[in-house]
Design a protein that fits this description.
The complex is a heterodimer of chains A (127) and B (108). Helices cover 0% and strands 48% of the residues of chain A. Chain A has 127 residues and is mainly β. In chain B, strand 5 and strand 6 form a beta hairpin. The chains are: A mainly beta (127), B mainly beta (108). At the A-B interface, strand 5 and strand 10 of A face strand 5 and strand 10 of B.
Chain lengths: 127, 108
Amino acid sequence: QVQLQESGPGLVKPSETLSLTCSVSGGSMSPYFWSWVRQPPGKGLEWIGYISYSGNSNYNPSLNSRVTISLDTPKNQFSLRLSSVTAADTAVYFCARGLDCSSSICNKSDQDALEIWGQGTTVTVSS
Amino acid sequence: EIVMTQSPATLSVSPGEGASLSCRASQFISSDLAWYQQKPGQAPRLLIYGAFVRATGVPARFSGSGSGTEFTLTISSLQSEDFAIYYCQQYNNWTPFTFGQGTKLEIK
């Protein structure tokens, strides 16, 4: 059973860089898409970006210049870096894996649906 | 960016009754739509993808319909564990992939 676990600092100072890692256990990183999603307190979900198992990435244009998602396949991990953070970046950060279309009835685009999620980690931006 | 609009914001329903939640996309997204359920303090759970395909382990009382710009999540005979917030999400066009603002399904 595949499980995801986020890790990283729970408190980040304004203007610094938020760094989180998602560890994947119980399965391979190939051939899936790996995403980061965040949820500010009491608000809805925002897709930060994703990276494919081959290393291609796409980022939310609202964060594009500040965000980097990278893959470490040998360690079964992927990471998020968000620079120049402000209080508006305070949120619960989730990592997630795209749908497994090898065992489900789905089209290629359905790989972007988020099938498996980490429990989430709270990051507060404050001095 | 494709804007996803969910209605109503809050839906009050009695256990055992059915519920219909709506989601509208600001432009055509074919059937590239997912529904998620989120309970307090938990990560979202994938319920439906491809607009109408139930994810693994999702009870048959959950069904999805629609295509293009109008979508519906229907829950028949609500159980106590179904009261939660439901989000729709499009993955047709990375502009980026966007979620609706959510519908809170509460006990009447």
